[in-house]
């Protein structure tokens, strides 16, 4: 006896709605990630200028240390003291030897604050260091 008969369910085919949802979520993710990447450079710092300054070619995983005019160090929007910065850099170097670091110091920052940050970098074996400068007539 044949209980199944000749009934066959229709084939499902390609589902367009879930595909649109996934593409929309990816778009939201990349727009948000781009905004966070730009915020680091928007901290209110006036960079010293150099005639030979070139637009930066960012390295993957580069950490930006912003040194404000009063000597505070800001990393990823957080103000860090010396032990906090040393701990952060030490953990990064253990995980990623050769970690690139970009130092953005305000042009009104005292030289001693920059040297203090450089000394912290040396203590934790950060040797891939760059300094940010602006082009004449450019702000930030």
List keywords for this structure.
15% strand; single chain; 5 strands; Nucleotidyltransferase, domain 5
Can you walk through the features of this model?
By secondary structure, this protein is an alpha/beta fold. The protein has a five-stranded mixed beta sheet with strand order 3-2-1-4-5. It has three helices and five strands, in the order αβββαβαβ. The chain has helices spanning 16-39, 82-95, 111-123, and strands spanning 63-67, 73-75, 78-80, 100-105, 128-131. It folds into two domains: 14-43; 44-131, Nucleotidyltransferase, domain 5, CATH 3.30.420.270. The model has no long low-confidence stretch (mean pLDDT 80). A hairpin with a 5-residue loop joins β1 and β2.
Strand content: 15-25%
Helix-strand makeup class:
alpha/beta
How many β strands by DSSP?
5
- Helix content range: 25-40%
Oligomer: single chain
Distance between the termini: 83 Å
CATH architecture verdict of the largest domain = 2-Layer Sandwich
Listing every helix as H and every strand as E from the N terminus to the C terminus, the arrangement reads HEEEHEHE
What topology emerges from the helices and strands here?
Elements: H1 16-39, E1 63-67, E2 73-75, E3 78-80, H2 82-95, E4 100-105, H3 111-123, E5 128-131
Helix pairs in contact: 2-3
Brief summary of the model shown:
By secondary structure, this protein is α/β, with parallel strands linked by helices. It has helices at residues 16-39, 82-95, 111-123, and strands spanning 63-67, 73-75, 78-80, 100-105, 128-131. It has three helices and five strands; from the N terminus they run αβββαβαβ.
């Amino acid at each position: 006896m044949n209980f199944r008969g000749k009934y066959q369910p229709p084939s499902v085919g390609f589902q367009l709605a879930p595909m649109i949802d996934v593409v929309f979520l990816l778009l939201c993710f990349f727009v948000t990630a781009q905004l966070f990447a730009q915020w680091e450079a928007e901290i209110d710092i006036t960079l010293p200028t150099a005639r030979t300054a070139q637009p930066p070619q960012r390295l993957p995983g580069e950490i930006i240390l912003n040194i404000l005019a009063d000597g505070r160090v800001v990393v990823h929007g957080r103000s860090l003291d010396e032990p906090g910065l040393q701990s952060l850099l030490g953990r990064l170097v253990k995980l990623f030897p050769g970690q690139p670091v970009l130092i953005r110091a305000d042009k009104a920052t005292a030289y001693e604050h920059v040297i203090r940050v450089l000394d912290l970098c040396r203590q934790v074996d950060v040797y891939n260091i760059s300094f940010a400068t602006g082009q004449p007539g450019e702000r930030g």
